[in-house]
Each structure stands twice: as structure tokens, then as C-alpha cells.
């Protein structure tokens, strides 16, 4: 049986990741953070001295790496590099500002995206879970356009910067805002994740706290379930 899919897109700091995780837990669903794979791939490029701007080189790396992520619990992200035997736990290192700044160099490649999207679909299909929340930038439009629940989560740039600055130590609000705006601009050139596609539910969390944002997701899922028994 295929899992019920809840597709959630949105920019950095919209609350997308933490809200998706908490909503998935409350519904007893799995959670697939697709950004983690793009981040892990950027890390793998750095470790193996692959030029992230070269699509053929990144595709060759994708042929040989082993990527695993758990959809429940702590969501550990592990990478085995080409020719390697050790599965590196990259859960923490992929969240550093250095990696964040590098990811758009690999996420801009169309064929890299196709390959990762297929990997995401396989991970979900093989999960054996009743439902999976899958979050990223192009889930509602490209990865799972037929998902019964599709949500675009946004918040104003100022609110997003404030939230991110709270997570990052030692970076000023101005610096975080500038980083967010720069990354949005690069990402938006590849996929439009700032305006909802037709049929996608917009959840603006600018004036919502964490609990209210989670409830908004759960309400949207409940509504879709009622509409299709
Ligand atoms: O969501 P997160 O901030 O972890 O994503 C990191 C980067 O991965 C984004 O800035 C974007 O370049 C890329 N990404 C993407 N498509 C996705 C998820 C992430 O291009 N579905």
C-alpha cells in the first residue's frame, strides 16, 4: 500500500522543517527532509574534491555514493563515499553555514534534481509507513504533484531571519537576513517555491507560533482526508 503523501514546500526559516517534523510525529507519519540530501551531496562533493559546478562530475558521484536517512525518530543522515566502507553520520555537518552556502551550486543541475527526485520517490515507496510528510522546494510541483495534501509554507523575510538567527550562534540578524535572501534568490531561479501552484494550500506562519503552525498543517491534512474518505 502506498503511503499517504503530505507535500510541503517553502523557503528557509518558514518553519517548514521543524513544523513538518512535529506534524508528522503527531500524525504518526514518517518525515522526509529532501534538503538534507542536497546538503549531503554538497558535503560529499567537498570531501571528494568534486567540482559542484560540474554536473557530470556530480552525477558520477551520485552513481557511487550511498545515502541513507531515517524517516522516523532522530532522522540520522548517513553517507558512504565512493569506494569507502564507512557510513559517515553527516546529520550535524550538513547544517553548517559553509554547506548551506554551497548547496545551490549542486541543486541548480537539472539532471541531478531528476536523480534525487527518483531517489525520494523510492525512499517513500519503500518506507512501509501509512503516511509520509515530504518537504522541500519542489515537492508540491515536481516530486509529488499528485499528493492528496500539498502545502506551501511561507513567512515574511524578517520573521524568517529572526527564527534562523535564533538557531544560529554568533551571527547577526542582518547577516542571517542577507544569507536567506541570497539563498532564496539562487533557489528561486531553479524552482518557484515562493508562490503556491494551483491547488496548493498556502500557510503563512508570519503571525503563528510553533503550535499554531503545526495545527494548520494537521487541519489541512484532516480536511483532505474528509474530502476523500
Ligand atoms: O531545505 P534546506 O534549507 O535544507 O535546503 C537546502 C538547499 O537544498 C536549498 O537551499 C536548495 O538549494 C536545495 N533544495 C532544493 N530542492 C529541494 C530541497 C532543497 O533545491 N527539494
Number of DSSP E strands: 8
The CATH superfamily is identified as: P-loop containing nucleotide triphosphate hydrolases
CATH topology: Rossmann fold
Largest sheet: 5 strands, parallel
Helices, by number, come to: 9
Ligands in the structure? cytidine-5'-monophosphate
Order of helices and strands: EHEHHEEEHHEHEHHEH
CATH class: Alpha Beta
Helix proportion: 40-55%
Major β-sheet strand ordering: 2-6-1-7-8
Based on CA inertia axes, which overall geometry fits?
globular
Mean pLDDT value: 93
Unreliable segments (pLDDT under 50, ≥5 consecutive)?
A: none
Return the domain count: 1
Structural class determined from secondary elements: alpha/beta
Catalytic activity: CMP + ATP = CDP + ADP; dCMP + ATP = dCDP + ADP
Pfam family, one: Cytidylate_kin
EC number: 2.7.4.25
Keywords: ATP-binding, Cytoplasm, Kinase, Nucleotide-binding, Transferase
Concise structural overview:
This protein is of the alpha/beta class.
What do these coordinates show?
This protein has 229 residues and is an alpha/beta fold. The chain has a single domain (4-224), classed as 3-Layer(aba) Sandwich (Rossmann fold). Helix content is 49%, strand content 16%. A 5-stranded parallel β-sheet has the order 2-6-1-7-8. The chain has a 3-stranded antiparallel β-sheet with strand order 3-4-5, covered by helices on one side. α1 (16-27) packs across α9 (210-227) and α7 crosses α8. It starts with a strand and ends with a helix. The mean pLDDT is 93. Cytidine-5'-monophosphate binds next to α2, α4 and α8. It is found in: Cytoplasm. It is an enzyme of class 2 (transferase). Residues 6-221 form the Cytidylate kinase domain.
Amino acid at each position: 500500500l502506498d503511503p499517504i503523501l503530505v507535500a510541503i514546500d517553502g523557503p528557509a526559516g518558514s518553519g517548514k522543517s521543524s513544523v513538518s517534523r512535529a506534524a508528522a510525529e503527531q500524525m504518526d507519519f514518517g518525515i522526509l527532509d529532501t534538503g538534507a540530501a542536497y546538503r549531503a551531496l554538497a558535503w560529499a562533493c567537498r570531501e571528494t574534491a568534486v567540482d559542484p559546478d560540474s554536473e557530470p562530475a556530480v552525477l558520477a558521484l551520485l552513481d557511487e555514493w550511498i545515502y541513507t536517512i531515517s524517516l522516523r525518530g532522530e532522522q540520522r543522515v548517513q553517507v558512504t563515499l565512493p569506494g569507502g566502507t564507512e557510513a559517515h553520520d553527516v546529520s550535524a555537518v550538513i547544517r553548517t553555514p559553509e554547506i548551506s552556502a554551497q548547496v545551490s551550486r549542486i541543486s541548480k543541475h537539472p539532471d541531478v534534481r531528476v536523480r534525487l527526485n527518483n531517489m525520494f520517490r523510492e525512499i517513500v515507496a519503500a518506507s512501509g509507513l501509512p503516511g509520509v510528510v515530504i518537504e522541500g522546494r519542489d515537492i508540491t510541483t515536481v516530486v509529488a504533484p499528485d499528493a492528496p495534501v500539498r502545502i506551501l509554507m511561507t513567512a515574511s523575510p524578517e520573521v524568517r531571519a529572526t527564527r534562523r538567527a535564533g538557531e544560529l550562534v554568533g551571527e547577526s540578524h542582518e547577516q542571517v537576513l542577507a544569507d536567506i535572501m541570497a539563498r532564496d534568490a539562487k533557489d528561486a531561479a531553479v524552482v518557484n517555491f515562493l508562490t503556491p501552484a494551483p491547488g496548493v494550500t498556502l500557510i503563512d506562519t508570519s503571525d503563528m507560533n510553533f503550535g499554531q503552525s503545526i495545527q494548520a498543517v494537521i487541519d489541512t491534512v484532516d480536511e483532505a482526508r474528509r474530502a476523500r474518505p
